[in-house]
Amino acid sequence: MNLQLIDIAILVVYLITMVMIGFYMKNKAKQDKESYLMGGKKLPWYMLGLSDASDMFDISGTMWMVSLCFVYGFKSIWIPWLWPVFNQVFMMMFLSKWLRRSNATTGAEWLKTRFGLVGKGVKSSHAIIIAFALISCLGFLAYGFVGLGKFIEVFVPWEHIKAYVPFDVPSKYVAHFYGIVFTLFAMFYSIIGGMHSIVLGDAIKYSIMTLACIAIGVIAVQHLQNQTLNVPKGWNNPFFGWNLDLDWSAIAADANKKIEEDGFSLFGIFFMMMLLKGVFASLAGPAPNYDMQKILSTRSPKEASKMTGFVSIVLLPIRYSMVTGLTVLALLYYNQLYLKGPDGITDFERILPATINTFLPIGVLGLVVTGLLGAFMGTFSGTLNAAQAYIVNDIYLKYINPTAPTKKIISMNYIVGIVVVAAGIGFGFLTKDVNNILQWIVGGLYGGYVAANCLKWYWWRFNANGFFWGMAIGVGAALLMPYVTTGLPLFWWPALFILSLAGCLIGTYTAPPTDMVVLKSFYSTVKPWGFWKPIHNLVTAEQPSFKANKNFKLDMFNVAIGIVAQLCLTIFPMYLITGMYIPFLVTVAILVVIVTILKRTWWNRLED
Q1: Which of 196, 289, 388, 475 is least surrounded, with the fewest CB atoms within 10 Å of its CB?
Q2: What is the DSSP letter of 286?
Q3: Three-class SS of residue 531?
């Protein structure tokens, strides 16, 4: 166990601080429902953006990214398009302000602004979005839980701990035991302090992570001096053809097995599928998780756009400094790392904890471990807050006790939080590894989400009945897919999308249109572009001064250059740390040009 007294002290101080934040924010969170779930919609956009970025800097995702960077090199920058990461660009340019104009508390509550409170399919659409939100939240809780356990297991070997534990833990469940212990800390401060506690905790964690990431980058550069990376041809080239063409046979043969298991060998087809799915998923808007909750918690639509744009700036360069630094160290000293799992098979997701444990000096090790543990706690608490919002706001207050006093509402949040954490841990016990659950969430579950949530923004005739059937068929098929087919979940996406789209269209045309009063209110308040001409005519008949949103072309232009800027933010620390200075300077120059353009085409044009 390489953790020394100073490292352990840093970790303990952090955990105590999180508990104290929970107590400190308790009274502020208890003021009312909105204060608990959304910080009273009074938190500044940059704090919410920092918190959102901090929640995305999760331990499981970072372990996954390091394993990808090791095996796929600079081509790994494309693989997070599975989420897709560029959905932040779509939200930054137009979707965040559209969403915030609803002034809703959750995605389910938002639906009433689009479909109203009565009519065929309204209650069903409300129920299906809650079900989807809770399934995805539980999936992400399990995803974080599994990654945390695997991370801690490397730093705290079981043989050093088992003498102090009054019961026997089988070796295959040691990671789960560690996951439960640290999950309890995250559960405590997030349940007690609500959104106020989560945002403050995330700011502290981000500060720690920034120091840790810079330190790792510097250490990697020092180790790389007078050495070269032993990597396959094409590893440090972000561009690709139809085939991946990375041959690890003479260096680390197990990496070839991972490429085969991942299903990424035909990288050109994989990329096109990611891009197609990613564009539709981005047009659908944020999924009902912590990301949506942060957008809805901003003070205004303009601040919602600023918050979303801020996320990529504060997240990507810092995160990829860590990812690249750890990858460089792992490549230089690959033969010194033990990456075997309990089953004796090489597990590349162990690169991150093994490299940290082996090469980081005292003090820096404590910062990194604390920062990554905080990354888990931030993601976990944000996801938990979203799940609480859906259960308490959209089930308890809507159907069970609509007149509940504030004290009762806060008590229900506490109870629901504990139940959700227990369920997330239960899902974690059923999960093999981080990659499996991630692939299912982004390739399968979100495949059933996309069609209905695209149509709700851009087509006036789409109604609650269509939303319900599109979501029900898509999500139902996603849940069944693992049992009826094999292969990369991303390749299920076209089938899921077509099934869901069919459900949307059949459901829509077997029910009357949404009430015109609701549609006129939605269109005039949210101001989306798309196929809204009949509603536009009705609105302008009543409000002759109303102007349609004609920013489609400008928004798409901003999205296109915004995605390029996001890629530049991702890859410039990779070029810098590996000593590729000419590509680094070119990337920075491109970034400066794009920022200058967006200042005129986006920032200066922001409005509520």
Answers
A1: 289
A2: -
A3: strand
